[in-house]
Amino acid sequence: MSVAASVRPKALTSWELWGRLMVVPYLVIFVVFVVYPVVYGLWLARDPQNYVKLAEDPVFFRTAINTFVFLVVGVNIKLAVALGLAGFFVTSRWWIKVLSLLFILPWAVPSIPTILSVRFMLNPEWGVINTTIFKLTGLDGPNWLNDPTLALTLSILMHIWKSLPFWTLILIAGRLSIPTEQYEAASVDGATSWQKFRFITWPSMKGLYFTSLLLSMIFTLGDFNSVYLLTGGSPADLTHVLATLGIRYLRLDQIELAMASIVVALPFVLPLVYVMMKRLSK
Amino acid sequence: MKWKAIATETKLLLVGIPVFLWTMIPIYHLFLFAISERDSATSGRLWPKNPTLQNFETVFGQKHFYLTHFWQQLGNSLLIAVAVGALTLFVATCAAFAISRLKVRGGRTVMNLALFTYFIPAAFLAVPMYKTMSNYGLLNNRWSLILAMVTIAAPYCIWVLKQASDKLPWELDEAARMDGATALQLFRLVYLPLMVPSLVAVGTYSLLLAWNEYLYGFLLLSKETDLTLAVALGNFLSADDSPWELLMATGFIYALPPAAIYYAFKRYMVSGLTAGAVKS
Prior knowledge:
- The complex is a heterodimer of chains A (282) and B (280).
- Helices cover 80% and strands 0% of the residues of chain A.
- With 282 residues, chain A is mainly α.
- Chain A has 2 domains: 10-44; 58-280, MetI-like (MetI-like fold, Orthogonal Bundle).
- Chain A starts with a helix and ends with a helix.
- Residues 1-9 of chain A have low confidence and may be disordered.
- By secondary structure, chain B is mainly α.
- Chain B has 2 domains: 2-60, no CATH class; 66-274, MetI-like (MetI-like fold), CATH 1.10.3720.10.
- Helix content of chain B is 75%, strand content 0%.
- Chain B is built from 12 helices and no strands.
- Chain B is globular, with a radius of gyration of 23 Å.
């Protein structure tokens, strides 16, 4: 008894010691590459003058609107389509299985080659889209990326193209966890597909759907590639989003403004992050 | 009854065909460009008149101004991806084991800090990260990209691994403790073998994240011979007279390994990466 009692605390200590030792690598990374940059970045953005400059920059105002449209319109369309496609992809047909393998490609391959490929398709003079328009109608197609509204819309579509497969996968996983008996029973009762969606699919997928929506909004805020590689912020810096604007300021050697543009977004980002952490850390 | 079946199939096809076209057109266009001769690439034909491997030959032979360091840059991409995969795996596995199995004090806080990092948009962290790397004297050093990518990849990996390891039965740990096993023995002999599927999933995830990364590479590296292939491809954009067909051929080569790896590990990737999210 006394032996066990004397061994136990010692054993516990050694396990606790190993536990501490094993979180050290991550903590070091966290302190050196997250805490330090964040604190340093906030310190760089401390001067209120930066925010005055930011507010006076017409590019910033336009960027804020673009970012809002990107998040609210882009992400909602993406998730709604993903939800619909989740229902499509769980249908058992051999060709849908094949299609689901191909469907994942935009997400599985790197952004650079595919976004540049789309950029070439949109080239007003020799891109395949305008060449085809000319062949069919004899008219010149629009100068796609030279119109701010069109260019931003295309960036949003590019973003959807790239990340739709991932969110569809997530929602398919959620859809597959609904027991098939529920759908079978509903079919026997003569339910329409809308009723099945309304009373079976939606109630059990609501939570996952909104988690995905919030998470996707946070990630979309950090999507640099879909805008930078397609439009580069042009024409006339009218298609920037916050992700590309910060980098633009950085490249113009205005790091204080870059940080200020990020700090301004925090009141919107932090509540989202808070809700997400509550949802995921339980 | 027969008509109803036909109607159902038609409806499915009406979704399937647009989905197929939407997904494949940019990728097919990339491929088409890569196998076309310079002037015929833009003709709008569905299949080039004279398909050629000439572009790939030019790329592999580094026979163009933009491609002088092709092999070196491919090697950089590979080195950085493997280093990020290995380091992330090490850091995340240790942390997840300590938090989930050893129940280290403060483990919950560490998990929350990691989750918080996961939710910082990558492009936001990029600005102060650039400055930080410059302060550390790591700018223009491939280590800066490796460390930045480990920082970005690790939180999600820790979270996925923690979710998976919480599901392992406690009896294993108790039995190991009874037998007088040390924490390290439990880790090596019991934990790691049981976690293989999740380890494959997060290892592949971080490897691909690093291979695919553009923004951080573009900010942190600048010497031609240090660049990853992603950044080198982006540099093609800086000139108006860029050789598009070579850019697309290089891009095609660059896109192949991640696609292949994804399909090879698909089973692990999908279950490993979606498991956590579905829970909530």
